[in-house]
Amino acid sequence: MTANIPPIGSSEPERKRGSGLVEKLATPKVIIGALISIAALWFIIANNSQVRIHLWIPWVSARLWLVLLLTFVAGALVGFLTGRRRAKRK
């Protein structure tokens, strides 16, 4: 009989706290990650000279911004994969 009666003092159904996109993106971890990403991209754009890189046996010439971008992407991928592994363990 009382299944459809709302709780006393509330005219709207309760919303779960923290379920919105803004709440999920406003965490310190996400903000710090975004700041590091912006700083890394700025550094990559500012360094655009040609460099030679020694890869154990061969020497490779490439733009410094490309080398930095590939290094940043590789580091982000390693961080993502190790973070997923830790989350699965718990």
Describe the fold and architecture:
The protein is mainly alpha-helical and 90 residues long. The chain has one domain (23-89). It is built from three helices and two strands; from the N terminus they run ααββα. It has helices spanning 21-25, 28-46, 64-89, and strands at residues 50-54, 59-63. A two-stranded antiparallel sheet has the order 1-2. A hairpin with a 4-residue loop joins strand 1 and strand 2. The radius of gyration is 24 Å and the shape is elongated. The mean pLDDT is 80.
Structural class: mainly alpha
Q: How many angstroms separate the termini?
A: 42 Å
User: In angstroms, what is the radius of gyration?
Assistant: 24 Å
User: Proportion of β residues?
Assistant: 5-15%
Our count of helices gives: 3
N-to-C series of helices and strands: HHEEH
Unreliable residue stretches? none
- What portion of residues is helical? 55-70%
Coarse morphology: elongated
Q: How many domains make up the 3D coordinates?
A: 1
Number of strands: 2
Main sheet attributes: strand count, strand direction, barrel closure:
2 strands, antiparallel
Q: Mean of residue pLDDT? A: 80
What distinguishing features does this structure have?
two-stranded antiparallel ribbon; single chain; mainly alpha; 90 residues
